[in-house]
């Protein structure tokens, strides 16, 4: 039951296996570079040098200054830091208390917004169209004099829809409001450059790009006022306390470097995988709804729902059967797996609850092969067909 | 001849044990799943390994697995415990009692709470670094909701009367948090018999990886309410969102297991080495030991060398890695330009700045101890002679 050796893994948007080079870097530093980067002796200085060297790699990869990159425990903490840190700083200094977030943000952003609501902040939600896109003019309608932060993710983790971040930042710049973008799904998949995108805050994580879990970073554009969310030592220039996780940071930087090198190749093959898979599914199954049909979308993700009038099935059953037959996929975000709540992303796109509950997200990565994709597509279709309503058959 | 430099800063961090590293590596490659991917076996395997580690860690402090929340480390655990418990229990009162010698993450969390309308009592300690239970009892008001006292100090090693404090807090219906970062794996901890409600600790102080820690939150007698400090998809029973660091957790579990299995033997050995170092250093003369020699971490040694600046001493002795105090000093130290802890036990600035912290550990050898003692002796004597010369020249 728990043997995954011959399993097909198509859940790369949940997490990725480490690149061999990355795990080797981590192994080496876990073994040899154990000093506390805040210690002043040679063990500490060695760790500190490694820390700064890798900060520079991460900074360079997103076009940031080294002093604008702060390491965190991952994407969730970075999103928390951006939202809560910004909100608390603004309330303290300017009294501004209004935050705008898109309806399709990751829970790490949405739950922070909900938390801030309990602290008296006002939260506005930007709707998306049926393909899952935010429209910049919708944002403009929501902006008030008290708006202190706008948060729109770069690409959605469930559908792959790439948001018009540049157009959005043109709006946020016009009003002088800091703009946060969660780029956890896009780093290493498409170019992410803080100046090109025009963002002030950005969240990234290592484990979606063949790096380790438990490490991420927040980019804070110089001059963007943010309170820390954790309090303690003076690490990360008083922005994020806690002993620096140097071995994983080295792994993170290596992963980002490798992902950049492989980015275009992976993009091309992902496009081929998605086209192939979609072809298999649409040619063999009735009532297929493609949630990743937008023109601007990550080819690494294909989200498929089924017309509930055709099928007597929910994604839990579907996924369980997929796993039994050797294919690992998910219903959407890994972080909500296990909970029966319908996807807030698909709901925001106007899907009805029953449709959202039939959804399977396939996501491809660098170790995916075309044979795996074909096999997964055929498995999916044969399972789905067995759940066709008798009236349809 | 031992490898140089000699590492004697085990309170700051520890090397990863090779057995821990072996336990971690499979989770970087073949078992790479997301522990929240409950819809396929990659996720199940990851979750299973997290469950196994959680059980080991819970067992180590006599807790239930569901009472253990994984965090990014002790700093986050302490933030979550102090700010989270204060926020969740605000309706009951706004007063918190802690000590003047807490780690900066407890201290700074308390300062943050003060800015948000809480009032905090920072209890003094005696010359040995001990909190007075009577003073603590007297500080309690009907507004007190939380007491936070560290189990053992990271600079001078003094072990606090945690059981007594726990019993008193339980009797008064006040939550008791202890930062046990230096203690877990070195001292026996039992959250039941010690009446602990919240307990923080981390992996990298016990030969595990950095970037992973735990917070114990009591689930019954009483059920402790804590407001989550990192929001998101609701991992860790809604207490701490974010994809679990499966490899780190597996390593942490292994590190705890080894520490518990080897604690007695290891403590005995390190205790003997520490005493050997202490004896040799005291022979130098003009040297005094800080902390409570009767109730002290077996691996800790804090020594003040009269008339010798610790920073200079460490610069000249770059083949022995020691420290002048906590690696996690916060910037807002106020008027005190030296260790808060040493200040709290009554050392003046001169003495404070002449103090070295030695931390011994699993890989410390007798040869290293002797080497370090010799080096320190020669540097201390040399420094004093130079100071003497300067002093005499001034006299002339």
Overview of the structural elements:
The complex is a heterodimer of chains A (393) and B (396). With 393 residues, chain A is of the alpha/beta class. Chain A has two domains: 8-17 and 262-385, Aspartate Aminotransferase, domain 1, CATH 3.90.1150; 20-261, Type I PLP-dependent aspartate aminotransferase-like (Major domain) (Aspartate Aminotransferase, domain 2). Chain A has 13 helices and twelve strands. Chain A has helices spanning 20-32, 42-61, 75-93, 107-118, 136-142, 165-175, 194-197, 235-238, 246-284, 315-324, 344-348, 353-356, 370-385; strands spanning 8-9, 69-72, 98-102, 122-126, 147-151, 179-182, 201-205, 216-220, 288-290, 301-306, 327-328, 360-363. A seven-stranded mixed beta sheet of chain A has the order 2-8-7-6-5-3-4, with helices on both faces. In chain A, helix 3 (75-93) packs parallel to helix 4 (107-118). In chain B, the strands form three sheets. Chain B has a seven-stranded mixed beta sheet, sandwiched between helices. Chain B folds into two domains: 6-13 and 263-387, Aspartate Aminotransferase, domain 1 (Alpha-Beta Complex); 18-257, 3-Layer(aba) Sandwich (Aspartate Aminotransferase, domain 2), CATH 3.40.640.10. The N and C termini of chain B lie far apart (45 Å). Chain B has 396 residues and is α/β, with parallel strands linked by helices. Chain B has helices at residues 18-24, 41-60, 74-88, 104-115, 133-139, 162-172, 246-282, 310-316, 340-344, 349-352, 366-395, and strands at residues 6-7, 68-71, 95-99, 119-123, 144-148, 175-179, 198-202, 213-217, 287-290, 300-305, 320-321, 355-359. The mean pLDDT of chain B is 94. Classes of the chains: A alpha/beta (393), B alpha/beta (396). Chains A and B meet through helix 1, helix 2, helix 3, helix 4 and helix 9 of A and helix 1, helix 2, helix 3, helix 4 and helix 7 of B.
